[in-house]
Amino acid sequence: MIIGTAGHIDHGKTALVKALTGIDCDRLKEEKARGITIDLGFAYWPIEGGRVLGFVDVPGHERFVHTMLAGAGGIDFALLVVAADDGIMPQTLEHLAILDLLGIEHGLVALTKADLVTPERLEEVSQAVRSVLAATALADIGILPVSALTGLGIEELGARLAAAAAETAERSAEGGFRLAVDRVFTLAGIGVVATGTVLAGEVRVGDAVELSPSGLSARVRSLHAQNRPAETGRCGDRCALNLAGPGIGKEAIRRGDMVLAPGLHAPTDRIDATLRVLTGEAKPISQWFPARLHHATAEVGARVVLLGDGSIEPGTTAEVQLVLDRPIAAAQRDRYVLRDVSAQRTIGGGRFIDLRGPARRRRTPERAAQRAALALADAQTAFTALLAAPPFAADLAAYARDRGLSAMQTEKMAREAGLVLLEAGTARIAIAPDRWQSFAASVTEQLAAYHAENPDLQGMGREKLRLQLTPRLPAPVFVATLQRLARDGGLVLDGAFVRLASHTVRLAPGDEAAWAVIAPLLGGAERFRPPRVRDIAGMTGRVERDVRRLLKLAGRLGWADEVAPDHFFLRPTVREMIGLLIEEAGRAPGGELTAAQFRDRLDNGRKVAIQILEFFDRHGVTLRKGDLRRPNRHRLDLFGAPVLSSDSFFGGDSSLVGRSDFKSEWGSEPVPGGFDSHSLPPPSSRGVA
């Protein structure tokens, strides 16, 4: 159990902890010289049964309330200290308000300096304390007179804390590991040590972790839990982690950072939340209100964006969006506190709802429904409600990350809810089972309607189809979804087009006969330099206009592609050329090839080779930089699967396949897609069937 002190300056918080544990939490020279606590202090007290109670001693001065907040975020039990001679003071009230906003429900009031006052004064102060506690979550906690000087009540205080520790249920360690850093230092022969309270999950020696918001990776070389060497630190423990890794140093970590399980690092600077404004506030909270946000051990400037109508009056609660000056690491349903920008007073606080609040359309009914779902306490119930709200689909991986769930929790949730998961890259889009059935039916209905209106076209463009469906899935996920439906046999993917398996295109008898003559002229040994429209007209004795019309019809059917004006290539030839392009790029340094290299591979002349490459450029199959080009792995299936498999792309060098600098280096955003598309058989084999 972690116990946090709270109370006004000079009311004896540090002396009380020392009387209990024998440890002086004031460690700084300035603290000892001035006799006041400036920074967080820590002490540990072993009790019967082998348990160790941890104490976080906080400053009581109004100038250091921000430091008090850094220490209060991870405590289980509040030790509210009120001097019997002074009674309730301003920081007593502010600290109490902060404890209430942070949801601390267990605690004890210690009336210190009880040896200096009469019994009547003790009773008077006790009644005053009980009065201010009444409106908080600590309304029913006990009040105990003590004296650190004479020892009055110290033994009973220790007994009550031990009893509270025995009654406090051990926190579940199921979630992903999160530790809020409150202190960083170096030790000779050991290295960098970061200390803090474990907010969720557990960590073991040797584990890989990430620092957020910096994104640095580290390894836990050793750790102390509750001031003892340990192999494991669990939720609720105060831990000291000895961290090592590239870039890890005392200056790289600071109070306010989080040490996280890999995969949880996703800092945010725009958060939808609930906000309860304290009753004592003089004015309502208006739009774009400036404040200081305190979360765990972090402090950052923020602006309050109202999501409802009108200002937020003192004593009321509303939904807001918090726009931060810099990103922080957080989790859904974490608590936070707002103070004014001059650090004079606490304004209010609440819970985070959505860590990815949008900058636009924040007040729509759809967003309100999503926030209502995400605000639910149970993770599975919340996600089920989220899938029932527009757009009726959500990224399970992102939800689990923002909720701080472990992989085991996530898989259990998906299994028990019977979710349909559509995966592409790191995204795992989840859809409720009933919604999936209606989505699949809608795909069939849309394609059937399109075929009825366009019987002479090979199919519907997949992007056009995506935009007409609900839920509107991200493009890469939609491709994976179509592939899933295609495996069930209901539809077929023809490159960038989708058709029902039952759909068959037929030409008019005259066009059928003409295509049977023209198609062979575009294939065979001359397929990389096929004759143009006027040449075909001359070779077949047909009218040039009729040849052009037929080839354009073949283009709409996906049998041929107009690479340059009046210059058509068969679709299988285009796929073959993409395969050769991939193969040639794999042989070239850095995966980049020139027009000359491509010309030599096709043996079709510089002009035609450049026309083909420019055609690929226009369709995003290649990315051009000066005279160099490289295949764009996200568009290689645009004309159907290339001849070579994706494993052969750049010789299997994944560092070249997945380069994260595609956009900055090549001036083009990769277009979502995939390799697993169904290709058309050659027109010569399909004929006019």
UniProtKB/TrEMBL annotation:
Region (Disordered), start-end ranges: 661-689
Protein name per UniProt: Selenocysteine-specific elongation factor
The keyword Cytoplasm is assigned to this record: yes
NCBIfam families, alphabetized: selB
Biased composition range(s): Pro residues: 680-689
Function in brief: Translation factor necessary for the incorporation of selenocysteine into proteins. It probably replaces EF-Tu for the insertion of selenocysteine directed by the UGA codon. SelB binds GTP and GDP.
Record domain Tr-type G: where: 1-170
Cellular component annotations (GO), alphabetically ordered: cytosol
UniProt xrefs under Pfam families: Beta-barrel_SelB, GTP_EFTU, GTP_EFTU_D2, WHD_2nd_SelB, WHD_3rd_SelB
UniProt entry keywords in alphabetical sequence: Cytoplasm, GTP-binding, Nucleotide-binding, Protein biosynthesis
Gene Ontology biological process terms in this record: selenocysteine incorporation
Gene that this polypeptide is encoded by: selB
Cellular localisation: Cytoplasm
GO molecular function (one): RNA binding
Domain of life of the organism encoding this protein: Bacteria
InterPro entries: Beta-barrel_SelB, EF-Tu_GTPase, EFTu-like_2, Elong_fac_SelB-wing-hlx_typ-2, G_TR_CS, P-loop_NTPase, SelB_WHD4, T_Tr_GTP-bd_dom
